[in-house]
Amino acid sequence: MKKTWLIIGLVCASGAVAAVLIVMYILPLDVKERSPVQPILFSHKLHAGSNGIPCLYCHRSAPNSRVAGIPAVADCRACHLYISPDSPEIKKLIGYWDRQEPIAWVRVYSLPDHVYFPHMMHIRAKIECSACHGEVAAMERITRTASLKMGWCLGCHRQHKASIDCWTCHI
Ligand code: HEC
Ligand code: HEC
Ligand code: HEC
Ligand code: HEC
Ligand code: HEC
């Protein structure tokens, strides 16, 4: 009788350990990937939202290149020589310029190397940034809103009658 309880106890305990491990595996990974803390407290809500700076002012490669592009420290400096130069975060920013060191922004959206994703085809097809990236202009810190799984791409391609041939995205 005692032995049966011992076995049941062991099974439950190992089940609980497995469950915790699975949760630990899924949760931190997802939280970490979806909204990582950035080296400078750059707010899209402040720049693209309240100050209405257009997305393409900073991400200017998007309409004619595969990548959208992240602005260089020189681009930030051009405005911040005059705007809020005394704020601690701007002093941090100018520190990067003085050291000629690029800011190591943490990537939020990224695909595996075997997938081809051209921004320009989507911009030309008049797909809004928000269809894939959510309401960025309302975000203090960028939070990933899409799974970036193959099914996500295919779902929208079917809806828009865009190509779903394997070689469209895998070359
Ligand atoms: C003043 C410049 C500026 C403007 C305007 C701006 N961005 Fe950004 N964007 C950045 C910088 C810098 C980063 C990298 C830091 C970060 O992730 O917050 C970034 C990151 C992003 C990312 C995450 C990229 C990744 O994978 O890490 C997306 C998506 C994005 N921006 C979309 C937009 C959209 C959509 C708009 C317009 C609503 C916009 N941005 C307006 C400067 C800007
Ligand atoms: C087109 C001009 C422009 C560009 C380019 C720009 N900013 Fe700004 N930034 C602003 C304005 C306007 C504000 C809001 C100032 C205010 O309301 O006090 C601001 C505010 C900020 C703040 C908050 C400052 C505070 O009060 O603490 C930070 C941090 C910042 N920007 C970082 C950046 C970084 C990093 C970049 C480059 C990726 C950048 N900015 C590019 C115009 C710009
Ligand atoms: C059809 C979906 C889609 C649309 C529309 C889209 N993006 Fe993206 N974006 C992505 C994907 C997917 C990635 C990751 C690409 C990779 O890793 O190769 C990405 C990456 C980025 C990045 C980071 C890497 C880079 O390309 O420099 C920025 C910044 C960005 N997008 C901004 C924008 C802006 C701004 C717009 C609107 C002008 C926009 N995106 C429209 C899906 C989209
Ligand atoms: C929100 C809708 C949407 C999403 C999400 C989306 N796409 Fe697209 N995609 C389109 C549309 C619309 C076109 C343009 C089709 C055209 O012009 O014929 C397109 C075109 C393309 C093209 C060029 C096709 C060609 O015929 O040359 C590639 C490559 C592509 N997408 C890859 C991807 C990948 C990879 C993903 C996922 C990471 C993705 N797309 C997610 C809507 C989307
Ligand atoms: C519209 C773009 C698109 C098309 C079309 C597409 N794929 Fe993919 N595929 C992706 C993306 C994005 C990923 C990466 C997803 C991830 O890592 O979860 C991927 C991943 C894969 C993987 C790797 C899965 C893994 O676990 O890493 C295989 C295999 C694959 N695709 C096969 C195919 C085949 C076969 C076809 C044709 C029937 C096809 N794909 C069509 C976008 C596409």
How would you characterize this protein structure?
- The structure is a single chain.
- The protein is mainly α.
- It has a domain at 1-34.
- The chain is 52% helix and 0% strand.
- It is built from 9 helices and no strands.
- Mean pLDDT is 91; it is low at 28-32.
- The structure holds heme C (5 copies).
- One heme C is lined by residues 111, 115-118, 121-122, 125, 127, 131-132, 148, 152-153, 156-157, 160, 162-163, 168-169.
- One heme C (HEC) binds at residues 40-42, 46-47, 51, 53, 71, 75-76, 79-80, 83-84, 87, 89-90, 93.
What shape does the CA trace take? flat
Mean pLDDT: 91
The counted number of beta strands is 0
Report how far the terminal alpha carbons are from each other. 62 Å
The number of distinct helices, counting runs of at least 4 residues, comes to 9
Describe the secondary-structure layout.
Blueprint: H1 2-34, H2 44-50, H3 55-58, H4 73-80, H5 88-99, H6 119-124, H7 129-133, H8 150-159, H9 166-169
Helix pairs in contact: 4-5
One heme C is lined by residues 40-42, 46-47, 51, 53, 71, 75-76, 79-80, 83-84, 87, 89-90, 93.
Give a summary of the structure in a few sentences.
By secondary structure, the chain is mainly α.
